[in-house]
Amino acid sequence: MSQVQRMSRLMVKTLRDDPADAETISHKLLVRAGYVRRNAAGVWTWLPLGKKVLDNVSAVVREEMDAIGAQEVLLPALLPREPYEASGRWEEYGELLFRLKDRKGADYLLGPTHEEIFTQTVKDQCVSYKDLPVMLYQIQTKYRDEARPRSGVLRGREFQMKDSYSFDITDEGLAESYALHRAAYQRIFTRLGLDHRIVSAVSGAMGGSASEEFLAPAAAGEDTFVDCPACGYAANTEAVTFPADRAEPADASSVGPMEELDTPDTPTIESLARQLDVPASATLKNLLVKVDGEIVAVGVPGDREVDLGKLGEHLAPAVVELVTAEDFAGRPDLVRGYVGPQGLAKVRYIADPRVAPGTAWVTGANKPDTHARDVVCGRDFEVDDYLDVVVVEEGDPCPSCGAGLRLGRAIEIGHIFQLGRKYADTFQLDVLGPQGKPVRVTMGSYGIGVSRAVAALAEQTADAKGLCWPAEVAPADVHVVAAGKAAQIELALDAAERLRAAGLRVLVDDRAGVSPGVKFTDAELIGVPRILIVGRRAAEGVVELKDRRSGESEELPLTDAVAKLTA
Amino acid sequence: MSQVQRMSRLMVKTLRDDPADAETISHKLLVRAGYVRRNAAGVWTWLPLGKKVLDNVSAVVREEMDAIGAQEVLLPALLPREPYEASGRWEEYGELLFRLKDRKGADYLLGPTHEEIFTQTVKDQCVSYKDLPVMLYQIQTKYRDEARPRSGVLRGREFQMKDSYSFDITDEGLAESYALHRAAYQRIFTRLGLDHRIVSAVSGAMGGSASEEFLAPAAAGEDTFVDCPACGYAANTEAVTFPADRAEPADASSVGPMEELDTPDTPTIESLARQLDVPASATLKNLLVKVDGEIVAVGVPGDREVDLGKLGEHLAPAVVELVTAEDFAGRPDLVRGYVGPQGLAKVRYIADPRVAPGTAWVTGANKPDTHARDVVCGRDFEVDDYLDVVVVEEGDPCPSCGAGLRLGRAIEIGHIFQLGRKYADTFQLDVLGPQGKPVRVTMGSYGIGVSRAVAALAEQTADAKGLCWPAEVAPADVHVVAAGKAAQIELALDAAERLRAAGLRVLVDDRAGVSPGVKFTDAELIGVPRILIVGRRAAEGVVELKDRRSGESEELPLTDAVAKLTA
């Protein structure tokens, strides 16, 4: 049973003002309420109150992982280069990876995620199909050298993560391990009190096939997602894929022949649309990129943006880069700012399905200061490949039912992947199968940002007065505030001890010489769900019980308050 | 309540043979019993069974730290260079420190211990003497790039440590915080079941005044310590200090004049003693060292060794180095292998108290192939400083009572320091004092090697059959072994469930197709304190209950066995 935490002894210094560099709610409030302290960009200390919340989140994660039969282990963070060299991620991670050398000059890294090492572990420990399936997890410190670490513990360079890995011999087994994790994650986030959505996701650098993200909607989130109010479809915007065959042909028989226009000083869609007095959606924007070094043009309506992430996903494993001024130098056929598909015989042309056969466009004429109009797809130019590559916008049709999509910002709090055999192939992870022959293992990988979940909870639950924790993660169940006089402090400590004896986790503000007003403000900032005030009627045994979220309070005898809190 | 752990599902692969590179008991057995797995030199994974033991040790540490009012926090391992630059340890740690750069080229280190950062934390969080005393702790991953990482988890390069720090405004306060930690450490090691000694220690690179070590006697230990069977004195051998005034004068009136001897080919004490047929203890060995670059001679009896650690402690902060061949080159007065104090007018001479005034010696004559005898201290040469600098040996007199000391090897499992104001001075850690003026804070620092404690426990408790854990740290309370038939497995699972429901942590070997012999051997190797065998008399409801340590066993009805185990 935990001890009563006395504010007179607890190391918690609250601040009235937001830290100068803080942008997000969680960053501001976790610092102001004395939960965390910054050591360096993206590197944080968890102070006593913060450590309690972090532990409470970890405990929920641990219970639910144990409940699905996952086994807890602890891997090192300092990892040798070789396995990451083998998987290709020593290079692929680029600057995101913290690399270092030991005293003998050997290369090491600080683990950003542990697929390689878990694969090696299971190769060591599991010999037969009888040893599988196995699910392993750890709650451990991860390192990623983010380009712009910010938002406090929401996106750190050193952070706490629960990562787990499943090992099966069949695709059905993997699907089951994945489903177990998916259900466990739903229970975890529900117990934590996190509003969350499960959305389709792209697998990115992780490799593998199916993957879903758990998103916590919040203005401070760095992810955008869509959901459909009509059918419930939800996806990370990068993963929204409209079928490319949505390109519905138009009738171009009444469109006149292509015509060139003198359009000086119109290198942008905006300037072009203004000069010609046409909507941006009637213009055709052509973005040049390099795909494995070869120049490719991507055509989308002028009012849309190309989503380079989606384009990269479509074309993977090819590498997509933007073209540079040097790339134009050797190509007189490519006139910067005035590219049109009708003049690109030697360039592969990828287009959004909206650039359908028979549609007519205003676009570049492949000459300086010149555009062309009535440029008809299928007549004046051909599309080599239709791909959905535009950035999704609010109101775009749902790929599942066609209704208008809603767009939102969210924090990624979990991600589950069906990796398949990518890492098993790299490390030749086989076990002896039921028929006595080696069988290649198939894997899943599953992550929860434990420290990020604390920040996400703060973002979703805080109000104007401060933090406002859900019961399961709060640093205490009750915050007892002694108004100030010695007798009130005595009574408050007595009440705290009774609540503790009844099994509650209790924080008591027993500070002498601190005004009641400061104590109330601190209690609201710290955000324990229930506040018990031992104040002016303490002598008659009457206290005030306040709900932190609703602000509702009632005066009642201490005995009744204790009974109510421990009910 | 924990779940029943089923061997059929648990990732634990036992080995019959010791790993090739393993030298110590704990290394061999923790690998063979499937507790740990090596990732790189000094870098280890804690597999499911090992993670449980590590958690059990951590839980005991946490409870006892909470009980003395220490507050748990979590600091990062990735730390900026500046605070360690300020304390001087960025340089002092030398190659022991893992250093790295981030993507912007800024210097970081992986924390080997956190005095600097805790000092900064308290400077931030504590303003007034009313905020003190405060004791903070963390159980966290530490990094030290050991020159020879070995012995498995006994001396890793990445390891788990509990480090705590106390902050007081008075020396009495520091003494109290230190005493609280000392008592907590005694309770921790007693609860863990570790045989341990508290010995005086030297503070080393940590700085500060008083310090004591907690040592776990074990053959695999890297520390040597002495204890006195007569008076209970105990110290790390490096910290044994005999009073220098123990140099009791001898009467040299009957000793003849100094005489030179032709002694070809006797550059060592051994060869000299053999040729002259005198005991090594009658010869005087003179070791040349450089102290801050100046050559100094150190004289000790020929049968003793100079303890460079003790010499360094005596002369700190001066830096002590051995002399090189180049150092001799410019000094014709120093004849290598034939140095004698009677010819060292220009060299400072430090001697062991045994080289007392009036004692006569055989020593070098400062000429090649020549020694001198009847060289009398005080007559033929002078001692500038008496210092106790010899390596302690078994039977040396106890500095406290004079009785013969015993010598032993041990593992350092804890270390407590009264740091004083060293770090507070570096970071100007002051708080507002009771008189309204700033008061400089005084600090203590306290460490327990959590992962090392696991290895120390294995070293102390293992027997010929395998690991043999004390109850509080064992990965389970009972290991239920089902002999092999389906009915026996059923009954074993049933027994396991009953034991679990009664609050015990249960491991059950329910593997099908594994022989009873292998299961018994595995159970003994894994080392859970009590083994319940569901075997040949299972059908009649009779099982065998075995004590892992004593090997004693009895047959009894299952109901009685359950009652006995849960008593």
What distinguishing features does this structure have?
homodimer; 567 residues; alpha+beta; BirA Bifunctional Protein, domain 2; YbaK protein; Rossmann fold; 3 domains; 9-stranded mixed sheet; 6-stranded mixed sheet; 14 helices; 30 strands; 28% strand; globular; protein biosynthesis (chains A, B); aminoacyl-trna synthetase (chains A, B)
Can you walk through the features of this model?
The first copy, chain A, is of the alpha+beta class and 567 residues long. Chain A folds into three domains: 25-240 and 407-459, BirA Bifunctional Protein, domain 2 (2-Layer Sandwich); 245-386, YbaK/aminoacyl-tRNA synthetase-associated domain (YbaK protein), CATH 3.90.960; 476-566, Anticodon-binding domain (Rossmann fold), CATH 3.40.50.800. Chain A contains 14 helices and 30 strands. In chain A, the strands form seven sheets. In chain A, strands 4, 8, 9, 10, 11, 12, 13, 22 and 25 form a nine-stranded mixed β-sheet that branches. A six-stranded mixed β-sheet of chain A has the order 1-27-26-28-29-30, sandwiched between helices. Chain A is globular. The two termini of chain A are 18 Å apart. The relative contact order of chain A is 0.15. The mean pLDDT of chain A is 92. Chains A and B meet through strand 2, strand 3, helix 2, strand 4 and strand 5 of A and strand 2, strand 3, helix 2, strand 4 and strand 5 of B.
